[in-house]
Amino acid sequence: MLPFFIYFPFMFYKGKILFAALFSLCLMLEKSYGQTKNYPRDQMIIDLGFERWNKVPEGYNERWYSHNFTLSLLKDIVNENNGLSLAIGGAVAWHHHHSDLYWDELGRYDLRSENYSKNKITTVYFDVPIEFRFRAVRDKRGRYFRTYLGAKVGYNVSNWNLYVDNDSKYKRYRTPGMNDWRYGVYVRIGWNWVSIFGQYSLSPLFEDGHAIEVYPYSVGISLMAF
Fold first, then answer.
1. Residues 55, 214: contact at Cβ < 8 Å?
2. Which residues are 218's β-sheet partners?
3. Contacts of 21 (CB under 8 A, 6+ apart)
4. CB–CB of 122/143 below 8 Å?
5. Domain that holds residue 113
6. pLDDT tens digits, residue range 52-92?
7. Residue 5's pLDDT is what?
8. What is the per-residue pLDDT for 91?
9. Please, which residues bridge with residue 53 across strands?
10. Which DSSP helix (H) or strand (E) runs through 24?
């Protein structure tokens, strides 16, 4: 395995290059299929959500402020005037999960009951989402109802564990046993430029037989930037 000071910059720039390549492909597809006259494109989407884990150990406590932030760029590659379309693109997602679950250097975990000020796992993913989109007829002000059903696959670009108590503070990168890949499903339902979303990971956060088997899920709001 590459040292972190080599691995992280490599994956960071690789993710940026891939993101730029996907967005360029979407622009090319847009020129091929043309602009729709009846609907905005919903190209940039910002997701702000609260996050939880499913199938957690007994006695496990999550903090209510566990959250995630996702920035997505998508383009309609099939966009008919009947309101149905298919969109594909790229996204970068940051997940911050606060709990009393503590990992040591070998990837073993226990539940911390002593006083601590911060204990969180942060994961950063580069995702490739695909959405089946339905848009209702626009009203006189150009507003409309939308329902988007999506699926995505993503790569874990980076992750780290931050722990702070009265006596110590450490930040450890590359949590042992964490899956490099993920896949899941999501839905967006909304009106005008605001939607609510829900997403569920169909893949476990950690590798089989390592640590614990948990499946992240989240709910929140989506803002259609343009």
1. yes
2. 51, 199
3. none
4. no
5. 4-224
6. 998 877 767 788 889 999 999 998 877 656 778 899 999 99
7. 44
8. 94
9. 216
10. helix 4-33
- Structural domain count, the chain: 1
Cβ pair 45, 222 in contact under 8 A: yes
Instruction: Fill in the DSSP letter of residue 91.
Output: E
Which residue from 60, 199, 194, 178 is spatially nearest to 119, judged by alpha carbons? 60
For 135, the token pair is: 């848009």
From the number of C-beta atoms within 10 Å of its C-beta (0-12, 13-18, 19+), residue 110 rates as exposed
Please state, in angstroms and rounded to a whole number, the distance separating the CA atoms of residues 44 and 114. Answer: 43
CATH number of the domain that 110 lies in?
2.40.128
Which residues contact residue 130 at a Cβ distance below 8 angstroms, ignoring those fewer than 6 apart? Answer: 86, 87, 88, 150, 151, 152
Q: Which residues lie closer than 8 Å to 165 by C-beta, 6 or more apart?
A: 114, 115, 116, 117
How far is residue 99's CA from residue 214's CA, in Å, rounded to a whole number? 13
Answer for the pair 101, 118: CB distance below 8 angstroms, yes or no.
Answer: no
Specify the amino acid at residue 6. Answer: I
Residue in the structure block whose two tokens are 């379309």: 85
- Measured distance CA(111)–CA(122) in Å, rounded: 18
Give me 103's structure tokens.
Answer: 């990992």
Contacts of 182 (CB under 8 A, 6+ apart): 125, 153, 154, 156, 201, 203, 205
Question: What average pLDDT does the segment 80-109 reach?
Answer: 80
For 186-222, the pLDDT digits (tens) are: 999 999 899 999 999 999 998 877 667 889 999 999 9
